[in-house]
Design a protein that fits this description.
It is a single chain. It contains 2 helices and 27 strands. It has a single domain, classed as Beta-galactosidase, Chain A, domain 5 (Distorted Sandwich). The strands form 7 sheets. It has a 9-stranded antiparallel sheet with strand order 11-12-13-14-27-23-22-17-20, with no helix packed on it. The chain is globular and about 60 Å long. It is mainly beta and 354 residues long. Bound molecules: alpha-D-galactopyranose. Alpha-D-galactopyranose binds next to β24 and β25.
């Protein structure tokens, strides 16, 4: 078998305002091609075949590194230290109060304005016997964005011969701190970022979701999806009930909610089928929750790849995660990493056709 490193190519992507060069790492395996950059640890392209074998890029992104520097929608980025929201940017841990920058109305979102999506991760080819991969490393110092503890974050992206993108997250810390890492790719399985994603058919392996208040912070309860527009236990078009008269849809302007994934361990969380192209995306994860975000805040103002300006709902995110605001929600699975422990999670994006 060919050495995996040979499937990894490195091409120039651009220069940051600080003068640092950023390369794109091109991974190829199983008929899929992924491009990863160190800036934000972002996936900048993901090319997968449709049912006729025609390959198209199914993620939103920008053409150059400046796009990622200016971007506000976290397109394709790694998110940390804490994916999703923390109420008021405050939490208590071991009797101490911590204040984080507030960057989403009254709340802290996605690790803060200079979260891991703004870091220049170190990238090197991954030594793997199967497929092709890269290993990314980012060291976040004590006090970074208000969080305690020096955190070492490590993420591996690996494409397998079966056309799966495997993302492995690891972190450790020298003090207790919240950690919740995810991947913020926006998918559009048509391959056309100018089209909306409302016809995509979604299945979620979730019987319950976490309703939110007016600022999108969980109320603390988990509510059954049965009988609501949040019921995706059978495949349903994303757009089918998105305009329904439901207070939770009104609060978020569509879907922007954490679903409680049934079961534990690495299991199927979501499956999306795009009827036109036949493309299928399955998301498997070890995380307890997944944020399904229907791209409600995309507004066509950002210049995306090839000049396209993705508008409202022209991409959707499925962000495996611990539940939002867990540091303030004792009933939710804990997202606290303590010294001597290793944070570890895996997500697998499996592509196919139907
Ligand atoms: C997450 C949030 C959304 C939005 C996007 C980024 O998915 O839940 O509300 O902030 O990130 O625009």
């Amino acid at each position: 078998m060919a050495a995996a490193k040979e499937e990894v190519q490195r091409v120039p992507f651009g220069r940051l305002p600080t003068g640092e060069e950023v390369d794109a790492w091109v991974l190829r395996a199983g008929g899929v091609e992924a491009r990863v950059v160190g800036y934000g640890g972002a996936i900048v392209a993901l090319r997968v075949p449709d049912r006729e074998g025609r390959v198209a890029d199914v993620v939103l992104g920008y053409d150059d590194v400046q796009g990622y520097v200016d971007g506000r929608a976290y397109l394709g980025a790694l998110i940390g230290r804490y994916a999703n929201r923390i109420r008021g940017g405050c939490f208590r841990l071991d009797g101490r109060e911590y204040a984080l920058p507030v960057n989403d109305g009254p709340n802290h979102l996605h690790g803060g304005p200079l979260g891991f999506h703004r870091a220049l991760w170190r990238v090197e080819p991954l030594d793997t016997t199967e497929g092709a991969g890269v290993a990314l490393a980012h060291d976040s110092p004590n006090g970074d964005q208000g969080y305690p503890g020096a955190v070492r974050a490590r993420v591996a992206y690996r494409l397998t011969a079966r056309g799966e993108l495997v993302v492995d997250y690891r972190a450790d810390s020298d003090r207790p701190t919240p950690v919740n890492l995810t991947q913020h790719s926006y998918f559009n399985l048509t391959g056309d970022p100018a089209r909306d994603i409302l016809d995509h058919r979604l299945r979620l392996e979730a019987d319950r979701f976490t309703p939110v208040d007016a600022t999108l912070i969980p109320t603390g309860e988990t509510a059954p999806v049965a009988g609501t527009p949040f019921d995706f236990r059978e495949p349903a078009a994303i757009g089918g009930r998105i305009g329904a008269d439901h207070p939770q849809l009104a609060r978020a302007g569509g879907y922007d909610h954490n679903f409680v994934i049934r079961g534990g361990g690495l299991r199927l969380a979501a499956r999306v089928h795009e009827p036109g192209s036949g493309r299928v995306l399955e998301v498997h994860t070890t995380e307890p929750g997944i944020q399904f975000y229907s791209g409600n805040f995309l507004d066509g103002t950002e210049r995306g790849k090839g000049g396209a300006r993705p508008g409202r709902r022209c991409g959707f995110c499925l962000e495996p995660q611990h539940f939002p605001d867990s540091p303030n929600q004792p009933a939710f699975p804990s997202a606290i990493l303590r010294p001597g422990e290793t944070y570890s999670s895996r997500t697998v994006y499996r592509f196919g056709v139907e």
